[in-house]
Amino acid sequence: MATSSNGKASAAASSNGKATTGGSHAKKVGKPALTPSVVERLTPTAVPAHKLVLRTLRRSDFKAVKEIMDKVYSNMEGAWAADEFAALLRKFPEGQIGIEDNGRLVAAALAIIVQYSDFGDRHTYAKITGHGKFDTHNDNGDTLYGVDVFVDPEYRSLRLGRRLYDARKELCENLNLRAMVAGGRIPGYAQYANEMTPAKYVEMVRNKEVVDPILTFQLSNEFHVRKIIRGYLPYDSESKAFATLLEWINVYYEEEEKLIGNTKSNVRIGIVQWQMRATRSLEDLLQQMEFFVDTVSGYKADCVMFPEFFNAPLMALTNEDSPAVAIRAMAAFTEPIKAKMMELAVSYNINIVAGSMPVYEDGKLFNVAYLCRRDGTVDEQYKLHVTPDEASYWGMRGGDKLKCFDTDFGKIGILVCYDVEFPELARMLSDEGVKILFVPFWTDTKNAYQRVRICAQARAIENECYVAITGSVGNLPRVENMDIQYSQSAVFSPSDFAFPHDAIVAEATPNTEMTLIADLDLDLLKDLNTSGAVRNLRDRRKDLYSLGWTVKKSDRDDELLSQGTEERITRSRRKAIAAG
Predict the structure, then answer these.
(1) Is 0.70 topped by the overall pTM?
(2) In this structure, is residue 565 part of a structural domain?
(3) CATH number reported for the structural domain that contains residue 160 in this entry
(4) C-alpha to C-alpha distances, 140 to 92, 171, 183, 345, 504, nearest whole angstrom
(5) Same domain, 225 and 360
(6) Would residue 383 show up in a list of annotated catalytic residues for this protein?
(7) Is 316 within 8 Å of 285 (Cβ atoms)?
(8) Which one of 11, 170, 299, 330 is most buried, counting C-beta atoms within 10 A?
C-alpha cells in the first residue's frame, strides 16, 4: 500500500480487492467510502509490525537487560550488575536466552546448571547463585536452575514468557538434564497473608480460586510445586519472603551411560513357584534351590525370588510334635541356607530374594527375608506384621525396621506376605524411590491368596511401581500348620495405557510348580509419573496428611502372643471334646 509524504494512507482496498484513490473519486459499491481517519485506524501501518527473534544473549545486551530489570524490579533490588551479567555469559552462554523485537531486546531468561543434590530443597536464592558470582554453575550437573525470567512490561500481552520457558525446556532436553528447577515468587500472597498460610495460598492458586501473576503462569507451563521455601528472597516483601520451589521433569532424560556397570532401565526378573515336597536332608533342599537359580539365570535374569518359608520341608526332619518347637529347630538351618544362597548369587551372577526363613535370636522368633546380591553382599528384611496364626502356633514376633535396598538394577523393597496388606509400608518405600516391590508369601487357601494378590495389585497402582509375588504349592503331610499350599505367582504393573490392559505383566498357572520370567521397563514408570492419565504419587494431598515412622516399640506382639495362646488352648479343648 502506498503512503503519502505525511505518512497517512493514500489508498485503500475496495471490495473487489483493487486499489482505489481516496476522497470524492472513490467508487461507490453500496457502502459509504472510508474517510482518511478511518483508513488510518484500520491499516497495518498504524500498528508497527513485530519481528520476534529468539536468540542467546550477548555482552552488548547488558544495557537493554538492565533497563528491563529496573522496570520489573523497581520495588526490589533492580538489575544485575555488569560483572554479574558477564559472569553468567562466561560460565554458561547457552543458558542465557533473549527475545528481540525488530532488533530491540524485550525479554530474557537467565539460567545455570547445578548438581541439585549439592543444595537440596532448602536452599536460598543467594546460596544457589553463589551470591551473584555464579561459581555454583557446574557443567556436569544434572539440573537446569532458573536464575531469572523477565519481560518488558510493554510486551506482557504477547506471552513471551511462555516462549522463554519452552526454549529452556528444549535446552534441558538437548543437554540431557534431569529437570528444570526454579524458585518462584508469589507476589499476590501479600494481600492474603493475614488470611491464610502460604501453603493454602498455593492450593488456592492451583485450584484457580486465586490468580497469582507468577505462580499461575508457572503452573500453566507444566511446573509443579515441590515445596514452599521460607526466606528464599528475604527482601521480597510482596511474597513475604516465601517462594515456591518449582520443578519441571525432563521425561527424555537418560542417565549418562558408563562403558560398563550402568543402572538398567529394562530389568528381567524371575520368580519361582515352589513345590513343597518331602525332603530327606538339607542337601536335597539345597540341590533344589540351585536347580531353580541355574534355570532362571540361564535366561539372563537380574533377580530371582523364592517364596516365604520355602524351606518348610525341613521342619519334618526335626521330629518335633509341637509346631512352636519344630519351627525353632528349623531355624538352625537358616544360616547354612543363607550361606548357600550367597554363594549361588555370586557364582550364577544373579541377585536372589531368598524368600523368607525363621530366625531365632535372643529368645525371640522372627521371619526374615534375605537379599543376596551378585556382588557378594547380603541384607535382610524382617517381616513386620505377623499374622494371628503365626503368633498362635509359633510365637513369632514382628521386626521394627523397613529397608529400601540398592541393587545394580535400581532400588527395590521386600514385603513379606501379610506386610503387603498394609499400604503404609509400600508408600514409605515408594517415597525412597523403590520401583520394584518383591512379595514372597505363603498361603494355604484361595481366599488367603486373594488378600495378598489384590493388595499387591493395589500397591502397584498406588505407588506407580511393579510388584512381584510368589508362593509355594503342594502339601506337606507331616508338617502341622504348613500342610497345604495355594499359589498363583504374578507380576503386576500400574494401570495405564503404557502397561498391559489388565495391569498384569505375567502370571503363573495356579498350583503348579514353575518359573515365571518377566521384563520390566522402568522408563515407563517415569513417563507415568509425569504424564499419566492419573498421577497418584504427585497428586497426594500432603497439605492434609502425612506419613511417618516411629521407633517406639509397642506391646502389640505381646498382646498377640497372649491372644494366640488362649486361642490355641481353646482349640485343644475343642479337639479333646470332639475326641470324647
Answers:
(1) no
(2) no
(3) 3.40.630.30
(4) 12, 15, 21, 35, 39
(5) no
(6) yes
(7) no
(8) 330
